[in-house]
Amino acid sequence: MRKLKAVMLSCGERSTRYAEYSLKKPEELEIIAAIDINPFKLERAKQRFSLTEGQLFLSLEDFLSKNIKCDVVINGTMDDQHYPTAMALLKKGYNILLEKPVTAKPEELLDILGAAKKNDCKVIVCHVLRYTPFNRKVKEIIDSGEIGRIMDMQLNEHVWHGHFVNAYVRGKWRSEKECGSGLLLAKCCHDTDLMCWLNNITVPTKVSSFGSRAFYCPENAPEGSTEFCKDCPVKDRCIFDAYKFELKMDCCPQYTWAEINKAEDEITEEEKKEFLTKNEYGKCVYKTDMDIVDRQCVSVNFANGSIATLNMVGGASRAGRHIHIICEYGEVLGYIEDNKIIFRKFNKQAVNNKYRRDEDYYTDKEILLDTDLSEGNNSVTGHYGGDYYIMQDLVKFLNGADTSRSMTVIEDSVNGHFIVYAAEESRLNATVVNLEKYRK
Fold first, then answer.
1. Is the pTM of this model over 0.85?
2. Which of 278, 284, 282 is nearest to 225 (CA)?
3. Cβ neighbours of 24 (radius 10 Å)
4. Which residues of 364-383 are buried (b: 16+ CB within 10 A; e: fewer)?
5. First CA to last CA distance, the chain
6. Which helix (H) or strand (E) holds 340?
7. Domains of the chain (ranges plus CATH)?
8. Fewer CB atoms inside 10 A, N or C side of the chain?
């Protein structure tokens, strides 16, 4: 296969993750330009990917004016910038690897879909959980037909409080007004996409949902607490005190200190303390301008009668995504973090046994996935391997070679996004929403 040439649009954490495939597989991918409004991030990309000054651009408009040829643009802009940047790129004929979610507005999603078709461009959406060894194996089992069709899917996402606070309470995704996406779209369009992909012999038709911001809110703030943690009289007994949570625990430094615009290992403790006196990361978690929910449940009905539920909670003790799929003659279940699947089959011979126990009705097979997803394995880290494997498929796809069953272009992302749009409408209006309204 020929080596692809790619351009980074926005040089933040997500674009960099994908672009780093070029360092692992330089014979397959090369980064030939970087675009960002932040000079520090541009300089970091320059060093990371051995770029020249002439390959750096401070605006998308400047880049587009140069008519630079490449195979794909890695679009890792913030959620509310996906639509205008994608439309500008598509009009110029560029293929796009687009970070999820596509957009918060149904009409914009259909606009991008239409522009991709009109300009004969490929838009590959970063639903990276499809590409994990865990979910690929689940899909393989379902598609084999060995346990029949899906009857019920139960998906759970428990967002660890370290991640949740740093991204969605104090972090830049805390405000739908600011970033363009609510929590369900920003965090769980992965999961609604999985629902539709695993059950793609049918389509979702109706959705209902409940959710609220019920923990990280002013009424739960300790009595006597202040807006910023620095001088708070009750901070010693608060687990979310910024000077403990951000400085000492420091679980998500790529989020917390990004606005300081220095390499993480060069930021001094004094600079961090000063930063926390004036930034959202130094605020009481109960008193930020967060405007999104911190828990939500979604129920989905499919055209063939199958159903699915998704439960998301922000602030769990342990991070985890759990899936349990019940089919006509068996089940598939497991935590993706365990890299292990339980494959359960109904024992059809049990009906002939007069004296039977409950366990005679089924047999369990434990499937251990042999992919090394440890942090020490520099080849396959990030989203349980999904960040690596989506790039592997991207190279094959744009070369016209066979890809895995995970390959997702924008046409495959529509239904998962529709579920989120309908869930938000249902949550806000206390109603069941028919998805046909989005398809018209």
1. yes
2. 284
3. 14
4. eeebebebebeeeeeebbbb
5. 40
6. strand 340-346
7. 4-125 (3.40.50.720), 129-216+291-382+408-439 (3.30.360.10), 219-282 (no CATH)
8. C
